[in-house]
Structures are given as C-alpha cells and as structure tokens.
Write a structure and sequence with these properties.
Helix content is about 5%, strand content about 50%. It has about 325 residues and is mainly beta. An 8-stranded antiparallel beta sheet has the order 6-5-4-3-2-1-14-15, with no helix packed on it. Strands 7-8-9-12-13 form a 5-stranded antiparallel beta sheet. The longest helix has 12 residues.
C-alpha cells in the first residue's frame, strides 16, 4: 500500500510531457560490458555485448549484435541472432529465431504509461514496465554528463487471458532505472536479460563505450572499462617518469618522479578483474604489490579522473 501511495504522489506531480531521449541509444560499434562472478566455481568473467555492422530485415535496417567473453570484443565475438533498430525514441529488437520484432525501450512514455516487455522472445513469460518518473541526473564517470533517468515499476506474475490472449498484471514489483543513451543501470543495454528481475546478485554492469571507442559510462571512478584487457595501448607519462622497477617473485613495484600527482594506481588481471588498488599520498614516489600469482597484469595510474600512465607487465 505504501508503495502505491508513493508512486501515486510522484505521478500526480509529474508534468504530462513526453520524455524523449536526446542521446541516441544505438550506434555502430557501441558496446556494453558486465562482470559476472560464479560463486560455486569462484570464477570471474567479463562479457561484452556490442553492435557491429547492419542488415536489412523486412525493409528495415538493423544493427547486428555480438557477444564476447573474457576478451577484447574487437578481436572476438559471436553473433547473437538479435538485431536492433531505433525509431523516434523507441528501441526495437528482432529475434531471428522467432522471426518477430519486440519493443526493448520506449523513451517517449509519460509517467503512468506501461508496456509489456517480452524479453526479446527469449523466455515465455513477459513482464510489465510502468513508468513512475523521469528526472535529470549526473553520471560522474569517466566525466560528469547530464542524462535523463527513467524509473519504472517492474511487475511480474502476469497471466494470459485464454480468450483475448492478453496479459494481465496485478502485483507490485521492484523499481528499475534506465539511463539516457545507456539503458538499464542493472546490466548491459542489449544484454539477453537487461532488467533486474531476470538477473542475480553476481552480475555487475561495468561500462558502456560509444562507437568511437570512448567510455560513455562506467561504475569505476578510474574511468576504466574491462574490454581493454587484451588490447590496452601503453600510455607513457614522460613528466611523471613512471618505471616498473621489479616484476618477479610475485612482486610488482613502480617508481615515479616527485610531483607526478598520481592519485590512484589500479592493478588488473589479464581478464580484467581488479586485483588491487593503491591511492598514493601527496609526495609518494613508489608503490609495490606482493604475493601476486604468475601472469600478465594491467596497471593504470590516474590523476584528476584521467589516465596518466598505463601498460602491461609480466610477473614471474
């Protein structure tokens, strides 16, 4: 009852104007990355969903979609059989298996409007999304950007009327938030299961890249994204004078010039998993990690939210 009253108050105060996204959602080369943890096997995986190339289906142009696991999506990827198009604030997905098109996002909705999300035809039971509110927000990383945020009530437990073949919903559900140009905050914008109800606590949405390769959104305050794990470009900082001074026996050590101004040092495995992080104090000129398993590691030094130095190193 409290949730109903809360939503009713929000709806009553909203202006009846369409909430049309100003930033495009689909773009050739755009990518969304999530981190998955499997507790029973204690394994980690990074999955990247991306758009690359286009095709024509029933006279409409769609972006082709791909997925890559544990690596650089530019080098590896598997076709998903799902194709995406955007038209007047709405995003559609075509499933080649069912040969049907489904509504994925509708950025033209007004508070109180609903639509039935059929989950791209992947599962049998669709659920209902009712728009609660639209407001402006700031996504801070990698740089502050003003975006619209759509908040929906996500309702499951529907039943199909055997006479009309329509779905009906009576239950309340969790609130789901969608960011302009990014998609669901819970997971990847074009994931098989982008909304909260279909996921679990071991999935974390990491970041979104634009078609030009630049990070549009990330949960990491270093502005870093997983898919660089196998294709990192070395970033040298001549002024900072960064050097790897030791990388053997499970120890990795760095030294740099005084005044380099580094504020964060992040160390990742080759698969993109965060291994450790240091926050050098003003005046520090060195940092070290010990007890590292043999392997390739990625390091990032940042200052002011920008990457100042980066590279790969082998620890033996």
């Amino acid at each position: 009852m409290k949730l109903k009253l809360f939503i009713g108050a929000i709806l009553a105060g909203m202006m009846a104007t369409p909430a049309v996204a100003q930033q495009p959602f689909l773009e050739d080369g755009k990518a969304w990355t999530k981190h998955v943890y499997y507790p029973y096997s204690d394994e980690h995986s990074n999955e990247t969903y991306f758009l690359k190339g286009d095709t024509t289906i029933d006279g409409r142009t769609y972006f082709k979609s791909w997925v890559a696991y544990k690596g650089d999506y530019l080098a590896n990827g598997y076709a998903r059989g799902l194709y995406y198009r955007e038209d007047s604030g709405k995003v559609y997905v075509y499933n080649a298996k069912t040969e049907k098109e489904y509504l994925l996002y509708d950025f033209t909705m007004q508070p109180g409007d609903s639509f039935i999300y059929e989950n791209q035809g992947i599962v049998d039971d669709p659920f209902k999304l009712t728009l609660v509110s639209v407001r402006d927000t700031i996504t801070p990383y990698p740089t502050p950007v003003k975006r619209k945020k759509w908040t929906y009530m996500l309702i499951t437990g529907g039943y199909r009327d055997p006479v009309t073949d329509e779905w009906h919903y009576d239950e309340e559900g969790p609130l789901e938030e969608v960011l302009e140009g990014i998609g669901s905050e819970y997971c990847c914008g074009i994931d098989d299961y982008p909304f909260l109800v279909t996921g679990h606590s071991h999935i974390e949405f990491r970041c979104c890249h634009g078609g030009d390769g630049n990070v549009l959104y990330t949960v990491d305050d270093d502005g870093w994204c997983f898919y660089y794990a196998t294709s990192i470009d070395e970033v040298k900082d001549e002024a900072g004078g960064l050097k790897v001074t030791e990388s053997a026996g499970g120890r990795l050590a760095f030294a740099w010039n005084a005044g380099a101004g580094y504020r964060t040092l992040s160390l990742y495995s080759a698969e993109g998993r965060l291994v450790a992080r240091r926050r050098p104090a003003a005046g520090d000129t060195s940092a070290a990690f010990t007890g590292l398993p043999r392997g390739v590691y990625l390091y990032y030094f940042t200052a002011g939210g920008q990457t100042k130095a980066a590279g790969k190193v082998l620890v033996e």
